[in-house]
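Sorry, any thoughts here?
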Amino acid sequence: MTAYDPTNVFARILRGELPSQTVYEDAETIAIMDIMPRADGHVLVVPKAACRNVLDAPPEALKAVALTTQKLARAVKAAFAADGVTIQQFNEAAGGQVVFHLHVHVMPRHDGVALRPHTGAMEKSELLASNAEKIRAALKSA
């Protein structure tokens, strides 16, 4: 297994070196807006523990990520009046992982609407901020 790289983008966000639209944070996790969303309301759940992916994550980090993922899945479903939620998690390059810090994608879904392709284009910060506020409001009313 390749060693954890503390210069990855999520480690830098956790240290406050890079900005993010944070929608939720607790002692063990953070949930942020994906800057290249495949659906409006696409969030990432990230453990604060330094782990590359599910293969090297300590059990307590996995538990915290799972609980935060459930909380955010409920919130994005409510915030975007979605019919369902897609949850994805990738491990190692061959498994589709691009950023090598454990993270879970949570995307609200609507019947008959496909996910947008991952083009690498970043979303406008104003839309991310607006979507983040909708999720924060849904978390408060949960």
